[in-house]
Every structure is written in structure tokens, then in C-alpha cells.
Amino acid sequence: MAINLSLQGGHRFYINFQGEEGYLPPEEGLHAVKILRKKVGELIKLIDGKGTEYLGQIVYLSWKKRTPFVRVKIIEILRRENIPPISLKVLIPFLKGDKTEFLVEKATELGMTNLLLYQSKHTILRKRAFKKERFHEKALSALKQSGRLYLPEITFVENLSNFLESLSEEKSLKLLAHPQGTMDLLSLLDWLKAPPSQIILLSGPEGDLSPDELSLAKTKGFQTISLSPYVLRAETACMSLMCLISSLIFSIYKFS
What we know:
The chain is an alpha/beta fold. It is 31% helix and 27% strand. The protein has a six-stranded parallel sheet. Strands 1-3-4-5-2 form a five-stranded mixed sheet.
């Protein structure tokens, strides 16, 4: 069957149902029919956040109390993405304003597999900071925009020290962004000659890690790396570390 998706642009819709037919989540359905004016019979792209992109068709549409019920049918698989061979975990500090949401978006775009949003001794949290649904929405939006097919797992770490204590000594690369970092790029490239099973990235919050947290991270195997001779904002350091690793992983192993 010859299919022309030229009118679909980059729009993809997230599905979380089992089987060949099901309903779009309410927010996805609203975007499809109210913003993009999709109608019954139209073809759309669907993603499941688990590595597969589908060609789908809208087969039913109704409204109830201003909420659209959009039923779609999967027609065929358009693309599959392999499971990431390296687990890329990033510890993202809770920051002021919407900076944490920004980092969740960018981490998703850069292919991080696990987003660990953490609270440290120097973190000041707002009451709404732990709203997981909001972070899920940001990650999903970035997933659809970027073309990636795996939605990262989002976890909340309420105590950074306890999390660090729980880390095993298994072979993995642990990197900590720090102004006085001792690892240079050549050493990092040497580490990456053989792909580790996982890479764990850590950068500090506004006000940096406490001396105890920094010492514990080093004890648990984190190697410090300097990203700039200048002082970086917390969000810049986190972003730079993710960009560095994402770029190297793609360049060395030819997977993203």
C-alpha cells in the first residue's frame, strides 16, 4: 500500500494501549482534533515510548464534556529503535523556576534512559516541585519533537546521600561535573574504548553539592570532570555533561 505522509509533518501521538486499537490519551486526542483538526479516516503517526513508531488511522471520534474520545487503529509499523545498549542515567538537581523541566526536556532529546531528579542538602523545593505528571509531559513532548522512540524513566531521589550509598560497585562509568575535575577528555575516551554497561552522570544544584555529598560521590566511584575553566550555572553544567556524553556515545559506537 503506497502511503503519503507528507502532510503529517513531525506530529506524533503517544499511545499507551495494548492491541491494535485503542483511545489516545485525553491530552493527545485534544491536540489531534482541536489544534490540528484531524478527522476520522486520517492517517497519523503513533509512538508507544517503548521503541516503536506506527502508522495509525483515526477510526472514531466523539466528544463528552469538552473531552475528545479519539480511537485509533494501528495499520503498520513504520520504525523500530533498538533498546539502548548502554544505560545512561543522569542525576538532575531540582532548580529554581522551570529549569528542572528544561533539563528533563533536554535529557530526553539527548537520549538519557533514566532521569533521577534529586534533592540535596542545598536544594530548596517548592511544594509543586514533585509533580511527576508535569515532568512526564515535558519528556513526552521532547520525545515526539526529537524523533526518538524510547521514553526515559523518571524517578525522584529525595535524599542524594542515601541514593549514593545504595550504588553498587558494578562496572560502570560515573562522572561528576566539578570545577576542579581531574579527568580530562583523553582519559574519558580511554574509559570508553569498551562500552560500559551503564553511565551515571551527576552535577550539582544551585549552591553546589555539600562537602559530605561530594566526598561520598568520590568514595562511590564518581570521577570528577571539569567542563569549563569558568563558573557554570547549575543547569549549564548538567546540560554540558549530557551533551558531552551523548555526542561521544554516538561518535564512538554509532548509536544514539
